[in-house]
Design goal:
The chain has 274 residues and is mostly helical. The chain has one domain. The chain has helices at 2-21, 24-44, 51-69, 76-93, 101-129, 131-155, 170-190, 197-225, 240-265; strands spanning 159-161, 165-169.
Protein backbone atom coordinates (compact mmCIF):
# COMPACT_ATOMS: atom_id res chain seq x y z
CA UNK A 1 0.00 0.00 0.00
CA UNK A 2 2.83 2.41 0.90
CA UNK A 3 4.55 1.71 -2.43
CA UNK A 4 1.30 2.40 -4.26
CA UNK A 5 0.82 5.75 -2.50
CA UNK A 6 4.45 6.81 -3.01
CA UNK A 7 4.24 6.02 -6.73
CA UNK A 8 1.14 8.17 -7.06
CA UNK A 9 2.72 11.03 -5.11
CA UNK A 10 5.83 10.99 -7.32
CA UNK A 11 4.14 10.51 -10.70
CA UNK A 12 0.90 12.50 -10.38
CA UNK A 13 2.24 16.09 -10.00
CA UNK A 14 4.42 16.16 -13.16
CA UNK A 15 1.69 14.42 -15.15
CA UNK A 16 -0.95 16.92 -14.05
CA UNK A 17 1.39 19.83 -14.73
CA UNK A 18 2.03 18.52 -18.23
CA UNK A 19 -1.69 18.13 -18.95
CA UNK A 20 -2.79 21.47 -17.50
CA UNK A 21 0.17 23.65 -18.44
CA UNK A 22 1.80 21.89 -21.37
CA UNK A 23 1.01 22.18 -25.06
CA UNK A 24 -0.44 19.58 -27.40
CA UNK A 25 3.10 18.91 -28.61
CA UNK A 26 4.19 18.04 -25.07
CA UNK A 27 1.24 15.68 -24.74
CA UNK A 28 2.11 14.16 -28.12
CA UNK A 29 5.66 13.46 -26.93
CA UNK A 30 4.27 11.79 -23.80
CA UNK A 31 1.96 9.62 -25.92
CA UNK A 32 4.86 8.09 -27.87
CA UNK A 33 6.37 6.01 -25.03
CA UNK A 34 2.93 5.45 -23.48
CA UNK A 35 1.58 3.90 -26.69
CA UNK A 36 4.68 1.74 -27.01
CA UNK A 37 4.27 0.50 -23.43
CA UNK A 38 0.55 -0.18 -23.87
CA UNK A 39 1.17 -2.21 -27.03
CA UNK A 40 3.94 -4.18 -25.36
CA UNK A 41 1.61 -5.17 -22.52
CA UNK A 42 -1.18 -5.87 -24.99
CA UNK A 43 1.07 -8.26 -26.90
CA UNK A 44 1.92 -9.92 -23.59
CA UNK A 45 -1.68 -11.03 -23.13
CA UNK A 46 -1.13 -13.78 -25.72
CA UNK A 47 2.15 -15.00 -24.24
CA UNK A 48 5.74 -14.12 -25.05
CA UNK A 49 6.05 -10.78 -26.85
CA UNK A 50 7.34 -11.02 -30.43
CA UNK A 51 9.67 -8.03 -30.60
CA UNK A 52 9.41 -7.68 -34.38
CA UNK A 53 5.61 -7.60 -34.30
CA UNK A 54 5.64 -5.18 -31.37
CA UNK A 55 8.05 -2.79 -33.10
CA UNK A 56 5.92 -2.84 -36.25
CA UNK A 57 2.83 -2.00 -34.19
CA UNK A 58 4.67 0.82 -32.44
CA UNK A 59 5.61 2.36 -35.80
CA UNK A 60 1.99 2.27 -36.93
CA UNK A 61 0.83 3.63 -33.57
CA UNK A 62 3.23 6.56 -33.81
CA UNK A 63 2.04 7.32 -37.35
CA UNK A 64 -1.53 7.22 -36.05
CA UNK A 65 -0.61 9.61 -33.24
CA UNK A 66 1.10 11.91 -35.74
CA UNK A 67 -2.10 11.95 -37.81
CA UNK A 68 -4.00 13.03 -34.71
CA UNK A 69 -1.41 15.63 -33.73
CA UNK A 70 -1.36 17.21 -37.19
CA UNK A 71 -5.19 17.15 -37.41
CA UNK A 72 -5.16 15.08 -40.60
CA UNK A 73 -8.30 13.31 -39.40
CA UNK A 74 -9.34 12.42 -42.94
CA UNK A 75 -6.30 10.13 -43.09
CA UNK A 76 -7.35 8.06 -40.06
CA UNK A 77 -9.67 5.62 -41.85
CA UNK A 78 -7.37 5.16 -44.90
CA UNK A 79 -4.49 4.57 -42.49
CA UNK A 80 -6.37 1.83 -40.62
CA UNK A 81 -7.36 0.22 -43.94
CA UNK A 82 -3.71 0.37 -45.06
CA UNK A 83 -2.67 -1.31 -41.82
CA UNK A 84 -5.20 -4.09 -42.44
CA UNK A 85 -3.99 -4.48 -46.03
CA UNK A 86 -0.34 -4.76 -45.00
CA UNK A 87 -1.17 -7.19 -42.21
CA UNK A 88 -3.19 -9.45 -44.53
CA UNK A 89 -0.57 -9.27 -47.28
CA UNK A 90 2.22 -10.20 -44.87
CA UNK A 91 0.22 -13.15 -43.54
CA UNK A 92 -0.48 -14.41 -47.06
CA UNK A 93 3.15 -14.15 -48.16
CA UNK A 94 4.60 -15.71 -45.02
CA UNK A 95 1.87 -18.15 -44.01
CA UNK A 96 2.86 -21.00 -41.71
CA UNK A 97 0.31 -23.69 -40.77
CA UNK A 98 1.37 -23.65 -37.12
CA UNK A 99 0.65 -19.92 -36.69
CA UNK A 100 -3.05 -18.97 -36.20
CA UNK A 101 -3.63 -16.11 -38.63
CA UNK A 102 -7.07 -15.09 -37.34
CA UNK A 103 -5.72 -14.64 -33.81
CA UNK A 104 -2.78 -12.64 -35.17
CA UNK A 105 -5.02 -10.30 -37.16
CA UNK A 106 -7.50 -9.73 -34.35
CA UNK A 107 -4.77 -9.18 -31.75
CA UNK A 108 -2.78 -6.75 -33.88
CA UNK A 109 -5.67 -4.68 -35.23
CA UNK A 110 -7.64 -4.58 -31.98
CA UNK A 111 -4.49 -3.70 -30.08
CA UNK A 112 -3.68 -0.80 -32.39
CA UNK A 113 -7.20 0.64 -32.05
CA UNK A 114 -7.59 -0.11 -28.33
CA UNK A 115 -4.20 1.26 -27.27
CA UNK A 116 -3.83 4.18 -29.71
CA UNK A 117 -7.20 5.63 -30.75
CA UNK A 118 -8.01 6.98 -27.24
CA UNK A 119 -4.60 8.70 -27.16
CA UNK A 120 -5.29 10.30 -30.54
CA UNK A 121 -8.63 11.57 -29.23
CA UNK A 122 -6.95 12.99 -26.11
CA UNK A 123 -4.66 14.99 -28.40
CA UNK A 124 -7.72 16.30 -30.22
CA UNK A 125 -9.36 17.25 -26.92
CA UNK A 126 -6.22 19.01 -25.70
CA UNK A 127 -5.92 21.00 -28.91
CA UNK A 128 -9.59 21.92 -29.29
CA UNK A 129 -10.82 22.28 -25.72
CA UNK A 130 -7.70 22.75 -23.56
CA UNK A 131 -5.87 20.96 -20.78
CA UNK A 132 -8.70 21.23 -18.25
CA UNK A 133 -10.90 19.14 -20.51
CA UNK A 134 -8.21 16.44 -20.65
CA UNK A 135 -7.91 16.54 -16.88
CA UNK A 136 -11.70 16.22 -16.42
CA UNK A 137 -12.05 12.52 -17.40
CA UNK A 138 -9.02 11.68 -15.27
CA UNK A 139 -10.65 13.33 -12.26
CA UNK A 140 -13.99 11.61 -12.88
CA UNK A 141 -12.30 8.22 -13.22
CA UNK A 142 -10.23 8.75 -10.07
CA UNK A 143 -13.40 9.76 -8.21
CA UNK A 144 -15.20 6.69 -9.58
CA UNK A 145 -12.41 4.36 -8.48
CA UNK A 146 -12.30 5.90 -4.99
CA UNK A 147 -16.08 5.89 -4.58
CA UNK A 148 -16.33 2.29 -5.78
CA UNK A 149 -13.53 1.16 -3.48
CA UNK A 150 -14.76 2.74 -0.26
CA UNK A 151 -18.49 2.09 -0.75
CA UNK A 152 -17.78 -1.51 -1.75
CA UNK A 153 -15.35 -2.03 1.12
CA UNK A 154 -17.71 -0.83 3.84
CA UNK A 155 -21.15 -1.64 2.44
CA UNK A 156 -20.74 -4.04 -0.47
CA UNK A 157 -21.91 -7.64 -0.23
CA UNK A 158 -23.31 -8.85 -3.55
CA UNK A 159 -20.52 -9.40 -6.05
CA UNK A 160 -20.64 -7.55 -9.37
CA UNK A 161 -18.56 -9.97 -11.48
CA UNK A 162 -17.13 -12.61 -9.12
CA UNK A 163 -15.51 -14.67 -11.87
CA UNK A 164 -13.54 -11.65 -13.13
CA UNK A 165 -12.93 -9.37 -10.17
CA UNK A 166 -14.01 -10.87 -6.82
CA UNK A 167 -13.47 -7.59 -4.96
CA UNK A 168 -16.02 -5.58 -6.94
CA UNK A 169 -19.60 -5.33 -5.67
CA UNK A 170 -22.85 -3.82 -6.90
CA UNK A 171 -22.76 -1.29 -4.07
CA UNK A 172 -19.27 -0.33 -5.19
CA UNK A 173 -20.53 0.04 -8.75
CA UNK A 174 -23.32 2.39 -7.68
CA UNK A 175 -20.97 4.27 -5.36
CA UNK A 176 -18.54 4.72 -8.24
CA UNK A 177 -21.30 6.07 -10.48
CA UNK A 178 -22.43 8.52 -7.81
CA UNK A 179 -18.86 9.70 -7.23
CA UNK A 180 -18.38 10.13 -10.97
CA UNK A 181 -21.51 12.26 -11.24
CA UNK A 182 -20.39 14.45 -8.33
CA UNK A 183 -16.95 14.86 -9.93
CA UNK A 184 -18.59 15.77 -13.23
CA UNK A 185 -20.68 18.45 -11.52
CA UNK A 186 -17.67 19.84 -9.68
CA UNK A 187 -15.63 20.01 -12.89
CA UNK A 188 -18.56 21.54 -14.76
CA UNK A 189 -18.77 24.29 -12.14
CA UNK A 190 -15.09 25.10 -11.57
CA UNK A 191 -13.54 24.30 -14.96
CA UNK A 192 -13.95 26.27 -18.17
CA UNK A 193 -16.40 23.79 -19.67
CA UNK A 194 -19.40 24.29 -21.99
CA UNK A 195 -21.55 22.03 -19.79
CA UNK A 196 -24.87 22.88 -18.23
CA UNK A 197 -25.47 21.15 -14.86
CA UNK A 198 -27.51 18.43 -16.53
CA UNK A 199 -24.86 17.90 -19.19
CA UNK A 200 -22.20 17.69 -16.48
CA UNK A 201 -24.27 14.97 -14.78
CA UNK A 202 -24.55 13.02 -18.06
CA UNK A 203 -20.84 13.40 -18.76
CA UNK A 204 -19.89 12.27 -15.25
CA UNK A 205 -22.25 9.28 -15.34
CA UNK A 206 -21.21 8.06 -18.80
CA UNK A 207 -17.52 8.49 -18.02
CA UNK A 208 -18.02 6.51 -14.82
CA UNK A 209 -19.96 3.73 -16.57
CA UNK A 210 -17.54 3.42 -19.48
CA UNK A 211 -14.55 3.60 -17.14
CA UNK A 212 -15.86 0.78 -14.96
CA UNK A 213 -16.60 -1.27 -18.07
CA UNK A 214 -13.02 -0.69 -19.24
CA UNK A 215 -11.71 -1.88 -15.89
CA UNK A 216 -13.76 -5.07 -16.10
CA UNK A 217 -12.74 -5.60 -19.72
CA UNK A 218 -9.07 -5.57 -18.77
CA UNK A 219 -9.82 -7.95 -15.89
CA UNK A 220 -11.35 -10.28 -18.48
CA UNK A 221 -8.21 -10.09 -20.63
CA UNK A 222 -5.97 -10.83 -17.65
CA UNK A 223 -8.20 -13.71 -16.55
CA UNK A 224 -8.08 -15.18 -20.06
CA UNK A 225 -4.30 -14.79 -20.11
CA UNK A 226 -3.79 -16.15 -16.60
CA UNK A 227 -1.88 -13.10 -15.32
CA UNK A 228 -2.41 -10.85 -12.31
CA UNK A 229 -1.08 -7.56 -13.73
CA UNK A 230 -0.50 -6.43 -17.29
CA UNK A 231 3.03 -5.36 -16.31
CA UNK A 232 5.21 -4.10 -13.48
CA UNK A 233 6.24 -0.69 -14.80
CA UNK A 234 4.66 1.31 -11.96
CA UNK A 235 5.57 0.06 -8.46
CA UNK A 236 2.42 -0.91 -6.56
CA UNK A 237 0.16 -0.21 -9.54
CA UNK A 238 1.08 -2.85 -12.10
CA UNK A 239 1.41 -1.93 -15.76
CA UNK A 240 0.21 0.91 -17.95
CA UNK A 241 -2.89 -1.00 -19.02
CA UNK A 242 -3.75 -1.58 -15.36
CA UNK A 243 -3.70 2.18 -14.77
CA UNK A 244 -5.20 3.37 -18.04
CA UNK A 245 -7.82 0.67 -18.74
CA UNK A 246 -10.70 2.91 -17.63
CA UNK A 247 -9.42 5.94 -19.54
CA UNK A 248 -9.00 3.93 -22.75
CA UNK A 249 -12.69 3.00 -22.70
CA UNK A 250 -13.97 6.36 -21.43
CA UNK A 251 -12.09 8.66 -23.82
CA UNK A 252 -13.99 7.81 -27.04
CA UNK A 253 -17.28 8.24 -25.16
CA UNK A 254 -16.08 11.55 -23.75
CA UNK A 255 -14.96 12.81 -27.16
CA UNK A 256 -18.34 12.02 -28.73
CA UNK A 257 -20.07 13.80 -25.83
CA UNK A 258 -17.94 16.90 -26.39
CA UNK A 259 -18.77 16.91 -30.10
CA UNK A 260 -22.47 16.38 -29.38
CA UNK A 261 -22.57 19.16 -26.77
CA UNK A 262 -20.72 21.47 -29.15
CA UNK A 263 -23.25 20.78 -31.92
CA UNK A 264 -26.11 21.32 -29.48
CA UNK A 265 -24.77 24.71 -28.41
CA UNK A 266 -24.17 25.83 -31.98
CA UNK A 267 -27.45 24.54 -33.35
CA UNK A 268 -25.89 21.74 -35.36
CA UNK A 269 -23.49 24.00 -37.23
CA UNK A 270 -19.85 24.50 -36.42
CA UNK A 271 -18.76 22.54 -33.37
CA UNK A 272 -16.87 23.94 -30.43
CA UNK A 273 -13.78 22.28 -31.81
CA UNK A 274 -14.11 24.35 -34.98
Amino acid sequence: MLTRVLSAVVLAPPLLYLILMGTTFHLFLLMLPVSAGLLYEWQGFKGAVEKQTWLALVVFAWIFLWIGYTHLVYLALPFLLLFLFIMVAKSVLSYQPDRPVIALWSTAFTGLVYCTLPLVLLLEIQENWGGEMVFLPLLVIWATDSGAYFSGKFFGKKKLAPSLSPGKTWVGFYGGCLSGVVAGLVCGHFFSTPFTPWQAIVVGLLLSLSGQLGDLAESLLKRESGIKDSGNLIPGHGGLLDRLDSLLFATPVYYLLLVWIGETLTGGGETLAG
